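Incident review: delayed structure delivery

Summary: a single-chain prediction request sat in the queue longer than the usual turnaround. Root cause was a stuck worker, restarted by the on-call engineer. No data loss occurred. The affected request and its eventual output are reproduced below so the record is complete for anyone auditing the incident later.

Affected input:
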Amino acid sequence: MENEDTKQPSAEPTSNPDQEENTSSLATLASEIETLKENVQKRKSETTTLRILFYTGLAVLLFGFIYTNQTLQRAQYKSIDSSVGRLQIQVSHTLLLLERKLQSEILDLSTKMEGRTVPGINHTLQRMNQTLEHLEPKTTSMGILIERLQRNSNELIKMVGDLKTEKTMPPMP
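Output delivered after worker restart:
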């Protein structure tokens, strides 16, 4: 008889309170896992969205920086260009003033020289040229120097003559 009892298991399910508790905790655990899965999916999508926003913002900032930099460079180039133009005008004006001052000083010296008993600069240069024409150079280099001296003195005579005619004309503005 003992064999019969051990051979036949009982067909009635035994309702164990621990087993019910395990089943209910297993169901809550499964629902919690599903909730966690949903939360993880939401977090992943939020993270992806935040990354997209971050990189988009970074790209916009970079583009803005490059655009601003180019705009500033263009403005600086224009400013430098206008400054150089003004400086060139100022330098040319200063050179003109210096040239006029030098011309007036040469004329003043010429008139002072002509006012004395000493002959004027034109007369002196012409006499020098006449004397140089009578010289016979001993070497070719001496001949070249004599020709150069005659050319320079002729140019100086011409400049002084031009200055005298300009002195009578009103100055340019």
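Verification: The chain has a mean pLDDT of 82.
Action items: add queue-age alerting; document worker restart procedure.
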